[in-house]
Amino acid sequence: MGxxxxxxxxxxxxxxxxxxxxxxxxxxxQVTLLLLGDGGSGKSTIQKQxxxxxxxxxxxxxxxxxxxxxxxxxxxxxQAIIEAMRxxxxxxxxxxxAEDVRQLFAPASSVEEExxxxxxxxxxxxxxxxxxxxxxxxxxxNLRGVRLC
Length: 149
Hints:
metal ion binding, transducer, G-protein beta/gamma-subunit complex binding, GTPase activity, mainly alpha, nucleotide-binding, 6 helices
């Protein structure tokens, strides 16, 4: 078989063999990693950091997709804090925050159901206002019974 091959065929066979060797070497270098842990333990954070380190930054499309995830996580965190405030019977100092809270709770269910972020949530003013108020409440609660010098 080798005797009847043209010079071009021999070069192509040599290239093919080299590509096969490189593929085997790459396969041997590939590592499969199984990350186990509870929700919120940082599995996806490690994955994202590894991607940034070894593959470079995220594309515009990936950033757009993660924007929804970041907003959703932010809203869920705010909701958890507000629920805890309700259980502990801690009120906002500013009664107008009740409307902001209503706006934050209503669209969050549509994000979970439809996977679409409401325009009310993309306006970070509501989120920032409620977060500022929550921060004030947390500080106020932490300072209860503490005498300032």
